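Training component of the fellowship. As part of building independent skills, the fellow (R.M.) carried out the full modelling exercise for a liganded target. The chosen ligand was adenosine-5'-diphosphate. The inputs are recorded below so that the supervisory panel can assess the work.
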Amino acid sequence: MKLDTSHMRYLTNEDFQVLSAVERGSINHEVVPTSLIHQLSGLRSLSGTNRSIGDLAKLKLVSKLRNAKYDGYRLTYNGIDYMALKTMLNRDSLYSVGNTIGVGKESDIYKVSDKNGVEKVMKIHRLGRTSFHTVRNNRDYLRKNSKNGANWMFLSKLAAAKEYQFMSLLHSRGFRVPEPFDHSRHIIIMELIKGFPMTRLRKHQNVPKLYSDLMKFILELGNSGLIHCDFNEFNIMIKDKLDGSDPNDTGFIVIDFPQCISIQHQDASFYFQRDVDCIRRFFKKKMKYEPKTDSTLLDTDGFGDGYKYPYPDFERDVKRQDNLDELLQASGYTKKHPGDRDLEDAVQGMRDAEYHSSDEEEDAEIPEGYDSDADEYYDSEEYDNEDSEEESDEGAEEEENERIIEAL
Ligand code: ADP
Ligand code: MG
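Fellow's submitted model of the complex:
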């Protein structure tokens, strides 16, 4: 889904109050009755509320729904985008929205700037995106199991909140993850990693150390109580340039955390091993690097800090040293938040389906939706030229977004 900010400048304060009322009313109502919207908005005249509702509906920030008993409105994705952007604009963590830099399976990623002109990344969670091929199964699951039907917006908010909490704690503990800056509803603002996903990597100054560092990351995360569960070349960024201050720095940063689980999860061992295998497979196939399986090897990379075994094993190697899972109430550990279970099932269901279906394909490492031509393309030297052409196309849109947000 595209981020549509083009209507923002037309909204009045009253419109905003009414939109906010629809959002609050949605907590308990799938369809928010007009009388409740009016009551929550705090506006004096009902005709004022109705006028705003009409304007918001025209701009597709709310949509009209009928149910058996009454007519009412619900917030659309445009509406919730607007609410989140407005909140972050008010907090000064966001100033302008730029180009899309990535479209994930369950998210849209934009380059944004704060008011000091510092570039950052905005990740908008969009669970239930129809282009994703397993979505139908998961929708059915949610329809059957969730009280209010398939509430993708609720799950997107939950996914963003979870990701923000995980990133905040992991970053504060020195894990190599982007610094998170702000979070509202289904949107996160974080550090921009100037680099590229590892899937495009074919050369690196120290392949064995990069491999070893990644395995150590999985292990240290496990020792802290957590498993990433989607640890693969698409969710590892490699920095373009290293600052040179640490000659041992292999330049990787791990992203994408909504599906993390606790090491106390019943399938912890399976997911841990799958993370390890993804890295192992990538290095073997694309980097032509496969360390020996000899478990007597004490140091695989010759740097003295390498992991003892080439392939970490959950049962043998994970030794709890910290309880980040308990701090985060990661799924598999607590049922305190009722939505966690749905989130876990929805997100994990998508990931698993993807692994499963790609296993059946010839080239098991390229998930559905990933453009394998693009991979070739990034390796070629033409990439830079094409990229700048695309940028000039999107330049106008970027300017428009900037202008709109400044006008708010
Ligand atoms: P999804 O959950 O949809 O897979 P990701 O968090 O993996 O979303 O992000 C999708 C893509 O966006 C990544 O593969 C990467 O190219 C880009 N991206 C995400 N976060 C950042 C970041 N902090 N800095 C730079 N690029 C990023
Ligand atoms: Mg990802």
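The panel noted the following from the submitted structure. The pocket of magnesium ion (ligand 2) is lined by residues 104, 234-235, 256 (CB under 6 Å). The domain at 85-192+382-407 is CATH 3.30.200.20 (Phosphorylase Kinase; domain 1).
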